[in-house]
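Entry 0007
Protein: Cyclodeaminase/cyclohydrolase family protein
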Amino acid sequence: MEKKMIDQSCADFTAALASKQPVPGGGGAAALTAALGTALCSMVGNFTIGKKKYAGVQDDIAFLLRQCGDLQQRMLALVDADAQAFAPLAAGYAIPKGDPSREAVLEAAALNACQAPMEMVRCCAQSVELLETMLQKGSRMLVSDVGCGALLCGAAMESAALNVYVNTASLSDRDAAVRMEETVDTLLREYLPRAEKIAQCVAGRIRK
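Output (structure tokens):
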């Protein structure tokens, strides 16, 4: 069985990303970045749970930790899902231009390639919501990690959006393309400012 990308060491994944091979690429990097940002939310929760100072929010923190754990697993799975979607797209482009099946194959492959980054954008939005709550209820000793997590998830969201747009641009079904782009645009407009607000709030707390 072929080794999953997420099972590689950090050094091996980075080397693969830098190499002259198509995957992993920007989509996989975005998904991993989102997982790391969400993991920082989990770290803050794990340093908060069980502390007497935060006894009043223990149930909330436990819920956040479960949500973060689920999101991290989804995001890591998207690293490989994004890579797997590239193979049919590459195969489609390899079909001779005179082949009557080429257009339909490319259309289906491009549509499929939109799915992983679309899910990344949605996951990042959910992570921002969790980070907002963690900022309010998590350990104040780790507030900078909440800010870092928000910035990572914001960057991952923008990166994933680019991977949606690069595929919708080639779709013949413009109605489907516009629907996906509008969904992404709406999420970006709402959640990027919220991620930035978290980071600004953190900076305001730690800078004197």
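Curator remark: The CA atoms of residues 95 and 101 lie 8 Å apart. The first helix runs from residue 10 to 18.
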